[in-house]
Amino acid sequence: MAPFPVPDHIPTPQGQNCPTFAPPPLDGSYTVPELFDYNAAHNPAHPLFVYADPAAGDRAGQTRTIRYPEAWRMIRRTAAVVHANYRRREAEYRAQEGVRPAGQGPTIGILANLDTISYFSMLVATMRLGFVPFPISIRNSPAGVAHLLSRTHVIQLYVSPDPAMRRLCAEAVALLAAEDGGVQVEVLPVVQFAEIEDAAWEGAEAEEPQVAFGKLDLDSVACLMHSSGSTSFPKPIYIGHRTFLQWTMLPSFGQVDLCSTVLGVHAVPLFHAMGIVNVIWTVRLTFSLFPPAYARARARVLNVSPCLCPAVHPARRCASLSPRPPLRIAVPPPAAYAAHAAPRAPAQVVSGLIMGVFRPSLPPTVPTPERYLAGIKATRSDVLFCVPSFVEAWVRDPENIPAMKSLRAIVYSGAPMNKAIGDQLARLGVALFPFYGATEIGCFSMFIPSEVPAVDEWEYFKISPHLEVEMLPQEGADDIFEATIVHTPYFKPNVINGTARDGRGVYRTSDLVQRHPRDPERWRMYGRADDQLMLSTGEKTNPGPLEAILVHDPHVAAAIMFGRGRFQNGVLIEPKAEFAFDPKDEDRLAEFRNKVWPSVERLNQFAPAHSRLFKEMILVADPQKPFEYTPKGTPRRHVVINAYAPEIEALYAAVRDASQTDLAPPAAWTPHATREFVRAAVERVLKRALGDADDLFQEGCDSLQATYIRNTVLHALRQSSRVALHALPANFVYDNPTIAALAAFILRLFSAGADGGADAEAAAAATARTLDALVEKYASGFTTHVARPGAEAAASADEVVLVTGTTGRLGAHLLAQLAARPSVRKVFALNRPGADTGARQRDAFVAWGLDVGVLAGGKVVLLTGDLAQSRLGLGEAYDEVRTSITGIIHNAWRVDFNLSITSFEPLIAGVRNLVDLALASPRSTAPSVLFTSSISVLINQPSPVPELPIADARGVVGLGYGESKWAAESVLLRAAREAGLRANVVRVGQLSGDRARGGWNAKEWVPALLQASRVLGAVPRREEDISWVPVDVAASALLEMLGSPEPVLHLVHPRPVKWSVVSDAASKALGVPTVPYAEWVAKLQAAHRAAAEAGADHDAADRNAGLQLVDFFANKLAGETAVVLGTERAVRAAGSLASAEALGAGDVEKWIEYWRGIGFLAPAAEGAGAGAV
């Protein structure tokens, strides 16, 4: 048996002053079940359970207390029954050799609606025999129960006598018998409290059962639990005695000595991990919640630290622990505890716990909120462990508030607390603490912090310092991470489903946490990574908080949002029983939607714009097709969504053609009537008045709202026989983004006839005129640069550079390299307003493996502003920037390929403002300005393309994004010609992963292609050259190009390589062959069809990002011809580009290693060939 490692020093030793409890040893010599033997002998006066019992006559009140000796006698009596029953099936257990997992004793299922003490006795007695108890949730379906019994080799199943459990058991056993081989499980009655309590055995000492208990192996299986089964059948989880012993230590990693206090767990079921944790804490933990200074400690103490690690090891900086995307929160070696905790021998770090429970009865007491609160009062519980629904029910009655305030802590878990209710309770002085844990890992959050959070921060928790955690950043979210727990010498997760960068096993929780905006040591639950709804627009919706708003509607039993891969979200609502109806009844459907609409409007006020719900997107569940629920009482999200896939598809089909049908079209499409109709359509969707020339998208119109405006116009136009709608472009709202432009577009349809006025040549000419007008608007009237006498002397000769867009991948590399240059005295990093700027920048550096230390080195000044505003929105900082900068690198730009050129106008205005900033410098030489343009401006240029300006706007028409880049180029180049500005336009091509670690954004098409290749079992071959540049090389080249005399440069690799360099290396690394591109696309299309037919496109898309880009791969990339770009001037201007090595197999291997490290790519396929076929 391996030793049981324990830190030499524990942060918060427990049970220091408990007169009735002598802590048992903690050296691995006793397992948790064996500690009940120990406590019965060494701690006979210490309580274990307390419950309200009017007949008890306790001197302390109407309660009964069960101490360890009686609890041990009940365990022994239960064990005698279980052992005698097992002897009849011992032969069958022996026959399972080689089938069941090694180290798994006889598996005994428990399917019971049972009181806590009886259930406790069943669990501990079974474990003490060396058997493996398997508590099964009573909320499972018969098929789910049968699946678990079969998978875990259960030989006997103990069932409670209530009709519901007998029926559930009978149906599950019948399903088992019908399987191949006819699996047989013996069904037995559970052992109940009345059979084992001391009162039933009084005067029968001679008949006390004698059971021989053997020594338990620390590395054997102690217990089985199971997952919630939210996506499929629940899965068994094996928990060892070593894990249980580790779990008993968890409160010692909190900040408070919890001694001699009752923990109210009246409503915590023992078939749930939260209940099991309570049981195993009893042998070692006595709760006394807070020291006498508790009342004074309610004020929040904020200890700001640059470290993300818990306070037990502040000397280690998290940002430097992992030079890769995850943020690592690391457990220190044992010696690191020395400075933070009083020494205590490992064998002494134990205490005990009193559990407040309901009185044992048959049937057991149903834990309603009223009964639970009464039980808390009767048992004088000081701390509660419960799900939020109880707290939310109590708060509705003001008379319950004093009782809640008298509790030293309410620890809630299992679901999010309603924000409004939590805020209310915190303001009233109720101490709320979130508890986050999982069967796979036990506790994640610290239990319990020493300080009660501030009124507005009750949702946040600290991570328990016994864990080493890697936080995986989420694309497009600066402060959202997936929690990942690493296997360490002190802790091993019960499930290993991934690998850390250094090769250690990890458990990826799929739970998302959000970092506190100011305190990096605190977090709150955000949602599930696998619940995130990625719309077809690339925007994400976190459904959890939004659904929580809906379920508080009195008409709603449950709500599940959907929309993954779609253009907009919808919600599926199961009404409460009294409001159920047939949703095919259109009148009643409309009535129900109106009833819940106030709650939906509250949701829309809370939700980001892209997550808003429209009334038409409310789907109501059919009472003949009820939701399935998990043991936690939450809907089985993916099971329900799959069950309702036909209804969801029909809803999207109906909404696709839907519009504001009650908005009547004009009687005649005159100019005035048309404009008024468009104004009404726009303002009803945006819910505010706009000027006729206001750009809809600058005013906040999103893609969903644009669709509703479009559909409203189409509905009106369909009523006219004069307009043919089949040829209308899908994006005509984007192309005509003002009320005036949209009205004019409609009028052209009537005047142009059947072709809808959509003559491509005329449209291109109109766009070119718009481009010319924008350039004229922002490239005229430049001021003349005037040097101020003495300015050069007052300023250092060192470089001072302003960089925009530094939280992206290229921008982060630019900032890191600038800050590391000895010649650079200061760098102003200017980004858009948003969450904590420092945290965003730090996260970007961590994500791309850059040195976070340079951010604190004194050179970097982080700024937020708006380039389109006067003085860049910088306020007083503007003058400091203006008088000190020697160079500007403009790297920030909006990436949205749906928008038309007019919607990019604020960005073009920002370019002009940067030109004005440079020309207003008091230095003798105005700062150089470098603009990172894009090769998308070359969309219509003949190959090869020289490094020269494009004079004619007609040559760039086609994509609003590329058009906007050309307009910015033109403003800069004209400023160079007319005002003497030193300007560099650099057209940047595809950037690959950096040379050191291969960091490459997993949301781009190349990683999506390789992930798809891993799933499809083939990498595509293509006949083309690629000229991708590693992002760190690109950053170096841009810094060298700044101030170059060459006005236009192309940043692509001067040494292109064949596609086969990438495909062959990827084939080898992924362990799959290469195939022709057309064959690969056919495989992808087949996978896409199969996923859609199976209703699993949302799950499949997580494993195969290529499914979301199937049209891109099949159409655009398949027909794309690579354009050859000249680089002669670029290599003269940038030595780093000139000397860059051609891409090779080593680069591909680094990219793949990086994507594997962040969990995007699975390991290589075993046994797959790497050759071509």
Give an account of the 3D structure.
Residues 675-750 form the Polyketide synthase-like phosphopantetheine-binding domain. One of its GO terms (molecular function) is phosphopantetheine binding. Residues 1-24 are annotated as: Disordered. Pfam families: AMP-binding (PF00501), AMP-binding_C_3 (PF23562), NAD_binding_4 (PF07993), PP-binding (PF00550). With 1173 residues, the protein is α/β, with parallel strands linked by helices. The chain folds into five domains: 32-248, Rossmann fold (3-Layer(aba) Sandwich), CATH 3.40.50; 262-466, no CATH class; 532-656, 2-Layer Sandwich (GMP Synthetase, Chain A, domain 3); 671-758, ACP-like (Non-ribosomal Peptide Synthetase Peptidyl Carrier Protein, Chain A, Orthogonal Bundle); 780-988, NAD(P)-binding Rossmann-like Domain (Rossmann fold). It contains 38 helices and 40 strands. The chain has a seven-stranded mixed β-sheet, sandwiched between helices. Strands 10, 17, 18, 19, 20, 21 and 22 form a seven-stranded antiparallel β-sheet that branches. The longest helix is centred in the middle third of the chain and has 21 residues, at 586-606. The protein is globular. The model is unreliable at 285-325, 330-351, 753-758 and 1165-1173 (pLDDT under 50).
